[in-house]
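Thread: Newbie trying to understand structure tokens

Hi all, I'm a second-year student working on a class project, and my supervisor (Dr. K.) asked me to get a predicted structure for one chain before our next meeting. I've only ever worked with sequences, so writing a 3D structure as a token string is new to me. If someone could post the tokens and maybe explain what I'm looking at, I'd be very grateful. Here's the chain:
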Amino acid sequence: DIFVNEMQKIQEGQIIARSGESISGSLLHFEIWKDREKHNPETWLIRQR
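---
Reply by user tm_fold:
Sure, no problem. This is what the structure looks like when written as tokens:
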């Protein structure tokens, strides 16, 4: 399930999607773009402990 649209601005903590199970396991693909440049999502995501 996808809860946001392409080019939509999102807020910290906002749920953007929910992944389900498939034969090969769970998979969610997303990209982060700012000022027409693609960014590495790992630098934007905060790991929870």
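A couple of things are worth pointing out once you decode it. DSSP finds no helices and two strands in the chain. The chain has a mean pLDDT of 84. Feel free to ask follow-ups in this thread.
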